[in-house]
Amino acid sequence: MKVKIIITAFLMATMAVMAGCDGQKTESVSDSAQSSVNTSDTSIIEQSDSLADTQSASTGISEESAKKTALADAKVSETDVDNIRVKQSIDDGVSIYEVDFYVDNKEYEYEISAQDGSILSKDTDIDNDFGSAAQSNAGVSLDDAKKTALSKVKGATEKDIRIHSDYDDGRQTYEGSIVYNEMEYDFEIDSETGKILSWESESVYDD
C-alpha cells in the first residue's frame, strides 16, 4: 500500500512539473509574438512618418498661385494685364516661377519661390517704344506681327504670346516670345516688311 501511494505521489509531481514547463513555453511564445507585433507596428509607423515627410517636402505652390502673388504685389488685376507669362525653372538648385507681364508700357518681371510662394526678386521696366505711338510708323501692325509669330507654333494662341515694339540698329522691329507646351520661342520681326528676322526655341526648363 505504501509503495502504491509513493508511486501515485511521484506521478502527480511529475505531471505538475510538466504542466509548469508547458505554461512557461506558452508564455514565452506569447511574449515573442507580441514583441514581433510591436516591432511590426513601429516599422509601419516609421514608414508612414517617412512617407508624410516626403510628401510634405514635395509640396509647393501652383503656377496660378505664383501669378496671383505677382499681380497682387504689382497692385493690378489680370484684366489690366497684357501678355502674361509664367514659367517654372531651376535657379541655383532652387525651383522658382518666373512671372512676366505688361501693363500699358510697363514690363513687370518676378521670380517667386515654387516652394513657399515668397517673392525672391522683382523688376519693372518702362519700354518707351511700346504701344500705339511706336506702331504708328510701322508698315506692319502689332496684330499682324502676332499672327505671323503664332503661325509658327501650332496650337498657340494670343494668351501664350507677349510682344512689344523696339528699335534695333535704327530699325523698328517687334520682339517677343511664345510659351507653349513647355517650350519657349523668342523672335524678332521686321515692322516694315513683317519678315521674321530671328527665331529661337528652347525648353522652359533650360536655364
What is the strand and helix layout of this fold?
Elements: H1 2-58, H2 63-74, E1 82-91, E2 94-103, E3 106-113, E4 119-126, H3 132-135, H4 142-150, E5 161-168, E6 171-180, E7 183-190, E8 196-203
Antiparallel strand pairs: 1-2, 2-3, 3-4, 5-6, 6-7, 7-8
CATH architecture of the largest domain: Roll
- Can you write the helix and strand succession as a string? HHEEEEHHEEEE
According to CATH, what is the topology of the largest domain?
Nuclear Transport Factor 2, Chain: A
The gross shape turns out to be elongated
> Which structural class do the helices and strands define?
alpha+beta
Low-confidence stretches: 48-58, 128-136
Rg over CA atoms, rounded to whole Å, is 37 Å
What does this structure look like?
The structure is a single chain. The chain is of the alpha+beta class. It folds into 3 domains: 1-58; 60-126, Nuclear Transport Factor 2, Chain: A (Roll), CATH 3.10.450.40; 129-207, Nuclear Transport Factor 2, Chain: A (Roll). The protein is 40% helix and 34% strand. It is built from 4 helices and 8 strands, in the order ααββββααββββ. It has helices at residues 2-58, 63-74, 132-135, 142-150; strands at residues 82-91, 94-103, 106-113, 119-126, 161-168, 171-180, 183-190, 196-203. Strands 1-2-3-4 form a 4-stranded antiparallel β-sheet, with helices on one face. Strands 5-6-7-8 form a 4-stranded antiparallel β-sheet, with helices on one face. The protein is elongated, with a radius of gyration of 37 Å. Mean pLDDT is 75; it is low at 48-58 and 128-136.
